[in-house]
Design brief:
- This protein has three helices and eleven strands, in the order E-E-E-E-H-E-E-H-E-E-E-E-H-E.
- It is mainly β.
- The chain starts with 7 loop residues before the first strand and ends with a strand.
- Helix content is about 15%, strand content about 45%.
- Strands 1-4-5-7-8-9-10-11-2-3-6 form an eleven-stranded antiparallel β-sheet.
- The longest helix has 10 residues.
- The protein has a single domain, classed as Beta Barrel (Lipocalin), CATH 2.40.128.
- Helix 2 packs antiparallel against helix 3.
- It is elongated.
Length: about 180
């Protein structure tokens, strides 16, 4: 599921309170969230940034999907082995392609393997940070096979009180960057 002006730097960082890419996938008919972060992300953002269209267009990142931390080692293994190892590449590469400052929207191209899709993020600037929120749908992005493997792997774990196994294809993405 993300920043601005001065001079562009590239760095690799572990998820901290200062910069986080959080995801929330869903299970059960009731749509119960399961959240996590990626521990290894290469961010390309200006240091000490100020939100401008020019700055936002410079954002890019590379996510090592195998660095997932979903709060449970078995869950991490299930997600890596069933989803990420079946969708074409270990890494997600994303870079800004469109910005609408007035509507506070950032559109990024997300590339996994041979597939590139546009993902929209609404953003909100606060005093000390910028928060980007978006949603992806694994099926609409063309990851049907990988999603099917994940859904089958987690069938028992995603069976709710209603006895229905449900893995939702939508995933919420939130990026928090300290300025």
């Amino acid at each position: 599921m993300k920043i601005i002006y001065v001079l562009l730097i590239s760095f690799s960082l572990n998820a901290t309170a200062a910069s986080i890419l959080k995801f929330t996938g869903y299970k059960f008919t009731e749509k119960v969230g399961v959240s996590g972060v990626f521990e290894s992300i290469e961010w390309k953002i200006p240091k000490n940034f100020k939100i401008t269209e020019e700055m936002l267009k410079k954002i890019s990142l590379k996510i090592d999907t195998w660095s997932i931390d979903a709060g449970n080692s078995a869950r991490n293994t299930n997600i890596v082995n069933s989803l990420f190892k079946n969708w074409g590449d270990r890494y997600i590469n994303a870079h800004a392609v469109k910005v609408d400052i007035d509507k506070k929207i950032l559109v990024m191209n997300m590339t996994v393997g041979e597939k590139t899709n546009e993902i929209s993020f609404a953003y909100n600037e606060e005093k000390e940070k910028v928060i980007f929120k978006g949603e992806i749908d694994l099926l609409k992005l063309g990851f049907k096979n990988a999603f099917s493997v994940l859904s089958e792997t987690c069938k028992i774990l995603h069976t709710g009180e209603d006895k229905v196994s449900k893995t939702w294809s939508t995933v919420d993405i939130e990026v928090v960057l300290d300025k």
